[in-house]
């Protein structure tokens, strides 16, 4: 394919197509992924081209979907499971954390489970209850799982390729509000490590760290701050487990201030782990406490209120101003 401008949704589709073409052991499974092409049309056309034995419409039973994927992985397949919406993953939570995450250790390394679980996550799409959750910290807390989230089409393509090729289970969170964001995708590039963070904007006064849907928000905040003479560095974390603390540390040693941004609630969120680790590593460099921006510690609200719930430009800039005021 070479280089082409794609949306994140189309990049994921292209990545799945490449994986299906390259390895007959790759399977795509999930609710409505076949004939419908997924509720977001991310898997559109795959069943038509690869058949119902490779792209499988499953019953509405998340626990059964993941359990079946585990069995297939034990038989040498590489299943790519789609959970239709973030809030639907919890019926499968037991299978994921007590079986999928533990099998490698339980078998003393003799058994591998190369399963990818794709989860569209996050809000800002005007959806009903259980359709706008950000549960990434729940999975990052579980040893044995890798947890990643792309923020752009290039990463969406390559990080999914790397996840499918991994012999470890990967939870692949797709920022659904960004599905239609478009960028150049080079399918011939040599990708960097799956779990390496990336500096997407250089700066000197403060570091913003985000992943998935909030990277774009942080870039917008950095652009707005620049108009007031503030230089913000933006890091796309890309991976929530493991976390590339070295890249964050290097940035904070330069800027001396850090604000961590994610859609999920701040309370016990992934930002807390980043704040704690960077405080330990950079204690003598920091000129302000590490601040966190995220959702509130409350159930996700009805869609007409989600703009008040979700962190946006103003809340990020407010935390930037607080950090710079020290």
Automatic annotation (TrEMBL):
<dbReference type="InterPro" id="IPR029061">
    <property type="entry name" value="THDP-binding"/>
</dbReference>
<dbReference type="Pfam" id="PF02780">
    <property type="entry name" value="Transketolase_C"/>
</dbReference>
<dbReference type="InterPro" id="IPR009014">
    <property type="entry name" value="Transketo_C/PFOR_II"/>
</dbReference>
<dbReference type="InterPro" id="IPR005475">
    <property type="entry name" value="Transketolase-like_Pyr-bd"/>
</dbReference>
<feature type="domain" description="Transketolase-like pyrimidine-binding">
    <location>
        <begin position="6"/>
        <end position="181"/>
    </location>
</feature>
<dbReference type="Pfam" id="PF02779">
    <property type="entry name" value="Transket_pyr"/>
</dbReference>
<dbReference type="InterPro" id="IPR033248">
    <property type="entry name" value="Transketolase_C"/>
</dbReference>
<keyword id="KW-0560">Oxidoreductase</keyword>
<keyword id="KW-0786">Thiamine pyrophosphate</keyword>
<protein>
    <submittedName>
        <fullName>Alpha-ketoacid dehydrogenase subunit beta</fullName>
    </submittedName>
</protein>
């Amino acid at each position: 394919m070479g280089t082409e401008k794609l949306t994140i949704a189309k990049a994921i589709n292209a990545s799945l197509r490449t994986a299906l073409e390259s390895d007959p052991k790759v399977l795509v499974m999930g609710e409505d992924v076949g004939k419908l092409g997924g509720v977001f049309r991310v898997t559109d056309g795959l069943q038509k081209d690869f058949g119902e034995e490779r792209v499988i419409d499953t019953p509405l039973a998340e626990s059964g979907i993941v359990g079946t994927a585990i069995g297939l992985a034990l038989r040498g397949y590489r299943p790519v499971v789609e959970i239709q919406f973030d809030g639907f993953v919890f019926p499968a939570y037991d299978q994921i954390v007590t079986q999928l995450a533990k099998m490698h250790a339980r078998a003393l390394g003799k058994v591998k489970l190369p399963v990818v679980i794709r989860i569209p996550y996050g809000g800002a799409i005007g959806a009903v209850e259980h359709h706008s959750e950000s549960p990434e910290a729940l999975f990052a807390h579980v040893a044995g799982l890798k947890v990643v989230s792309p923020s752009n089409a290039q990463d969406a393509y390559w990080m999914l390729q790397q996840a499918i090729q991994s012999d470890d289970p990967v939870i692949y969170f797709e920022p659904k509000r960004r599905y239609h964001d478009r960028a150049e995708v080079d399918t011939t590039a040599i990708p960097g490590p799956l779990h390496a963070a990336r500096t997407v904007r250089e700066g000197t006064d403060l570091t913003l760290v985000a992943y998935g849907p909030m990277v774009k928000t942080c870039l917008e905040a950095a652009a707005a701050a620049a108009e007031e003479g503030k230089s913000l560095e933006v890091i796309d974390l890309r991976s929530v487990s493991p976390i590339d603390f070295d890249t964050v540390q290097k940035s904070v040693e330069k800027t001396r201030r850090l604000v961590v941004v994610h859609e999920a609630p701040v309370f016990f969120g992934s930002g807390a782990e980043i704040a704690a680790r960077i405080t330990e590593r950079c204690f003598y460099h920091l000129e302000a406490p590490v601040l966190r921006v995220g959702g509130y510690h409350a159930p996700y609200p009805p869609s007409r209120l989600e703009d008040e719930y979700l962190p946006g430009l103003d809340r990020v800039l407010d935390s930037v101003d607080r950090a710079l005021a020290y």
